[in-house]
Predict the 3D structure of the following.
Amino acid sequence: MPAALFDLDGVLVDTETIYTRIWEEIDSIYPSHIENFALKIKGNTLERILNTYYADDDTRRSVVSLLKEREEAMEYPIFEGVLEFLGDLQRCGVPAAIVTSSNLPKMTRLFAAHPGFREFFGAVLTDKDVSNSKPHPEGYLKAAARLGAEPAECIVFEDSYAGLQAGRSAGARVVALATTNPRHTLTDKADAVIDGFEGLTFEALMRLFDAD
């Protein structure tokens, strides 16, 4: 029986547009001089972003403070169809996990905002559970192990290029969500591309793989 491994932002919760605006704001204050910076860093842990792009300690502290302030004011809307799909996975006996670069305080706020959401997942891995950020496959390999599944049995759901690469490097089948990046840029990076979870069932998903 396969297991389902989900990225969070842009896959389960509709927050990627919000994060893009936040990082564009940060980049306007502390310029990285990198084109499309907010998109380039998607899928990376905050620690990796800080270590890669902000050498100055004062700047790092300011970036963390601004990000924390914006995150604490955020809402975490769950995409349409997600709860129904997760419920169908449970009925089919398919275990699920979240593999996110987000930190534990954010996950605590998310689960407080959506009582019962945590119960859909047998494991939740955050930034502190891995030493290597996506596109490294560590997070997905650890999630598979926690669910007692072989990586090749897993289905990874991702929206970012780094996350899709992480899923493939883990040896899993990969489903791309066309929520953050254009659909045509995802087809060669995933085994299937979907626009969202509305109307999707586990049975229909497996047929989608068979069709490919």
Notes: The first strand starts at residue 3 and ends at 6. The mean pLDDT is 93.
